[in-house]
Amino acid sequence: MDALLQSLADIVGWEHVLTRPDEIEPYVVDWRGRYRGAARAVVRPGDASAVAAVVRACARAGVPMVPQGGNTGLCGGATPLDDGRAVVINLSRLNRIRQIDTANNTLCAEAGCTLAAIQAAAEEAGRLFPLSLASEGSCEIGGNLSTNAGGVQVLRYGNTRELTLGLEVVMPDGELWNGLRGLRKDNTGYDLKQLFIGAEGTLGIITAAVLKLFPAVRQRTTAWVSVPDPAAAVSLLSRLRGACGDRVTAFEIVGRSALELVLHHMPGARDPFPGDGAWAVLVELSDTVADGGLAELLENELGLAVEAGLIEDAVVARSLTQMKALWGLRENISEAQRIEGISIKHDVSVPVSAIPHFLAEADRRLKEVWPDVRIVAFGHIGDGNLHYNLSKPNTLDNNGFIAKTGEVNRIVHDLVVDLGGSISAEHGLGQLKREEVLRYKAPLEMHLMRAVKRALDPAGLMNPRKVL
């Protein structure tokens, strides 16, 4: 009997130590199917103390550990390597809402809570937790924290880092750090929680978090708007924010190629404006006031934008069903792309003002080399984050194109950095960009990141060969 496996079973019970290949399979393949690893075992602890005990057992045995939540990541960060040495520590059983403090506007959730469950708990308490992703029904807050997830409401509320007040973390030696403080002001030294947010499990395992809550939204209005080009979209964003302030909750751009994939692959999807419009934006305003006249405000501003030549057409949702249908056109893009087949994906950010130049120049440079490249561009234009994905329409041609990923990345990422941007806006580095980041991070930055890793995880057992 393997001594480590027996130790793990003593902690969590044999029913939560998975070793058979068919049991392990779902935990060693990433959501996109791009990365496939192997694991010595998958262990499923049920609380933070069990996580700490599992980590201590693995650390004593010198065995690498891969923390994992809902396994919805896009960069292979939660997928073990293929050497089969690691133990995957799946946190899905840590799924309790520990506390809701409405006076303090905070919620304490364990790492295995799905994002949708946290949203529902906040809503039941008359509050809002604003982090919103297409995968919110299956992604878990521990993974959201570990990748500093963004989503569609960063424009108004910020990303996960800005929504977090405290953390509970199991350190690489198995010690449990309780930093679950729901304080907006705490100036007692280094803000240690920030080390773990966005670290992708390479410095420790997040087991719980204190999250910010906001007043419940009582009014929402959504519109699908056809714009002539990205420059017009940026101008429309500026106009709406000037007129509506923070009530502009989301502002998403969708290129025609992205929309066509959704229309082709997702049953029931319908084009709001059948035709050849090259670009659309999805706009959402929200307010805590029940009768604030948001629909009228949005319609008036869109009318003025038509007169200014910024938009070509617009439809404002008149019901919850229509609103969900419009959002479905945006949120189902990633799923439609997965069905369509593999592509070269880029999750980049640039200053909002630079988005039109990036899109025009990246298109030009790529088409000089690959004239028939299919460019699927969409994303959170309101905060400067674009998903810029490339493939060939023909499957046989696409196989050869995917082999050119390095050359494609040079074109896209060099331009992003020249514009003062980032090659990873919200998906993290994982395995996908571990080497790529070395081209763009300053040597001093990499030195400091490695120094932090050595200080907290000197044995290098926490999610090895991810990020660094």
UniProtKB/TrEMBL annotation:
Q: What keywords appear on the UniProt entry?
A: FAD, Flavoprotein
Per the UniProt entry, what are the Gene Ontology biological process annotations, in alphabetical order?
respiratory electron transport chain
InterPro entries, A to Z: FAD-bd_oxidored_4_C (IPR004113), FAD-bd_PCMH (IPR016166), FAD-bd_PCMH-like_sf (IPR036318), FAD-bd_PCMH_sub1 (IPR016167), FAD-bd_PCMH_sub2 (IPR016169), FAD-linked_Oxase-like_C (IPR016164), FAD-oxidored/transferase_4 (IPR051264), Oxid_FAD_bind_N (IPR006094)
This protein's cofactor list reads: FAD
The record, for SUPFAM superfamilies, names: FAD-binding/transporter-associated domain-like, FAD-linked oxidases, C-terminal domain
Q: Quote one Gene Ontology molecular function term.
A: catalytic activity
Q: List residues of the FAD-binding PCMH-type domain.
A: 35-216
Question: What family does the database annotate?
Answer: Belongs to the FAD-binding oxidoreductase/transferase type 4 family.
Matching PANTHER family, A to Z? BLL6224 PROTEIN, D-2-HYDROXYGLUTARATE DEHYDROGENASE, MITOCHONDRIAL
Q: What is this protein called?
A: FAD/FMN-containing dehydrogenase
Q: What is the lineage of its organism?
A: Bacteria, Pseudomonadati, Pseudomonadota, Betaproteobacteria, Rhodocyclales
